[in-house]
Amino acid sequence: MDAAEFRKRGKEMVDYVADYLEKIDKRQVFPDVEPGYLRPLISDCAPQEPESFEDIFKDIEKIIMPGVTHWHSPYFFAYFPAASSFPALLADMLCGGIGCMGFSWAASPACTELETVMLDWLGKMINLPQEFLAGKDGQGGGVIQGSASEATLISLLAARTKTIRRVQSEKPELTEAEIMGRLVAYASDQAHSSVERAALIGAVKIKNVPSDDTFSVCGSALKKVLDEDKAAGLIPFFFCATLGTTPCCSFDKLLELGPICNKENIWMHIDAAYAGSAFICPEFRHLLNGVEFADSFNFNPHKWLLVNFDCSAMWVKKRSDLIGAFKLEPLYLQHHHQESGVVTDYRHWQIPLGRRFRSLKLWFVLRMYGIKGLQEHIRKHVGLSHQFEHFVLQDERFEICAEVILGLVCFRLKGSNKLNEALLQSINEAKKIHLVPCHLREKFVLRFAICSRTVESTHIKFAWQHISQLATDLLKTWEQNHHQQ
User: Fold this and answer.
1) How far is CA 24 from CA 15, 16, 69, in A?
2) How far apart are CA 108 and CA 59, in angstroms?
3) What local confidence, expressed as pLDDT, does residue 482 receive?
4) C-alpha separations of 328 from 155, 207, 334, 348 in Å
5) Average pLDDT, the chain
6) Domains parsed from the chain with CATH numbers
7) Within 13 Å, how many C-alpha atoms sit on residue 273's CB side?
8) CB neighbours of 450 closer than 8 A, spacing ≥ 6?
9) pLDDT reading at 481 higher than 80
C-alpha cells in the first residue's frame, strides 16, 4: 500500500467508522456467537501472497462485527463508560502516523512535553493541589498510564521501595527480605480486584478494610486494622482509597483516612478510575476533598471524559518517589539533557519502556469540547441515571441498593438472589440491552451504568420498559412454579 492508496483507503475507513458509530443503535448490543466462532471463518495460516484491501474490508462485517460487543451502543449499560469521540479518534490516527516511542525526552520531545502540560491542564480542571502539578519547577507531576490497574501497581511498587529504604535506615540489622515479609497493603472490601492483583505482583500481603453501611471505608475502621497489625510486628506501608467503587460507586472517607496515613507513614493512593472525571464539575468536586493527604492519585479520562482507550491519568506529589524506584540508565537510553533538571523521561514513571503519543487525544478533546462541553456531558449522564432511578422507585417490586451519586444505579427485584440472577439472565439473553451484576454484601444486584456518549432519555425509557416487562414475565413464571410445588 503506497501513500496514494492509503489516502483512498483511509477515507473509506473513516466513512466506515463514522457510519458504524452513527448507526450503532441499529446493531444488537451483545453478539449471538458461541466461543470459538471465529477460527472456522479464517484460514489456519497467514497467506503466502498479498491479499487485496477490498477482501479484508469485506471481512470486517463478515468475521469481526458478528463477534463484537458494542460498547458505544446507547443500549450498553454494563461496567462503566468506555469513552470515545471523533476528536480523540482523529488524534489516535495522528499518533499512529507519527509512530514515535516516547520513552525519553530525546526520543520525542513533543510527546514528553505535551503530556506534562496536558496533565497540568487536567489537574487544574479538577482543582488538584499545586503539589501534584509539574508546572515549571514543581516536585510533582502527571503521567498517562495505560489503565488504573497500572497506576495502582506503580504506586504500590514505589511505596514498597520507599518503605524498605526508610526501614533499613532506621533498623539496618533487618534485611530487605525480612522487611518485605512484614509489609502490608490495605484497601476497602469494595476496592477493585486490581488492587489485590497489584499486591500479588508486588509480593506483599494485602488486607481488606471493612466498609460501613454506605460501602465506604472510614478512619476508625482503618485505624483498628493498623493497630492490630503493628502490634503483631507487621509494617503497614500502602493504602488504596477508592472514590467511586466498581460495585456501587461509593466513596471512601478521605478526610478521615488521609491524616491517619500521613501520621503512620503510609503511602495513600487514590483510585478514582471512573468517578474522577466528574470532579471537573464544581458541584461534584467536594467528593475529592482530602486528596491533599494523598501521595498519588489516578482517574481514567478514557472512561467518562470522551478520550478513547487507553488514557489513564496519574499524578504524584513527589516524582522522585517514582524515579527512585524504577530508574535504570543503560547507555543506549541516555541523552544529553537527562541530567539538566528541565526534562522528564517518562520511562522512569511506568512499567513498560515504550509509550505512545497518548497526550494528543487529551489535547484534541480538551480543545474541541472545552471544559464547559465536558461538564455538560457529565451532567447529562448523571441526569439520565437519576431518570432511571426514578423509574425504579416508582415500581414497588424493585429496590435501590445504594445511593445514586454519579451515573450508576444499583437495583434489584425485592426477593431472592436466584430471582435476580434469573432476571439478569433474561435481560442479557434478550440482547436488547446489556447489564452486569455485582454483590453488595449478601445481595445479588444489577448495575445500570450510563455509558454511551450518544445515550438519550428515550434509550433510558426503553431500557426500563424492557426490564419491567421481563420482570413481569419472570414473576408470573415464578408464581406459577411456586403454586405447582
Assistant:
1) 14, 12, 11
2) 36
3) 66
4) 18, 31, 10, 8
5) 90
6) 3-77 (1.20.1340.10), 100-356 (3.40.640.10), 371-483 (3.90.1150.10)
7) 25
8) 77, 81, 381, 382, 384, 385, 388, 407, 408, 460
9) no
| pLDDT score, position 258 | 96
Is a pLDDT exceeding 80 seen at residue 337? no
Question: Measured between alpha carbons, how far is 128 from 181 in angstroms, rounded to an integer?
Answer: 35
For the chain, first and last CA: distance in Å? 68
Band of residue 346 on the pLDDT scale cut at 50, 70, 90: confident
pLDDT of residue 335: 60
Of 297, 288, 296, 239, the C-alpha closest to 263 is: 239
Please choose, from the candidates 68, 83, 76, the residue with its C-alpha nearest in 3D space to the C-alpha of residue 459: 76
Decide if 392 contacts 409 (C-beta within 8 A). yes
Nearest one of 232, 241, 245 to 261, comparing CA atoms: 241
Alpha carbon distance 463, 240 (integer Å): 35
* pLDDT above 60 (res 339): no
pLDDT at 331: 56
Full strand arrangement of the beta sheet holding 205-209: 141-145, 312-316, 296-299, 267-271, 235-242, 183-188, 205-209
Say if residue 479's pLDDT is above 90.
Answer: no
Segment 399-416 shows an average pLDDT of 93
Here the cell at position 93 is: 490516527
Res 105: pLDDT: 64
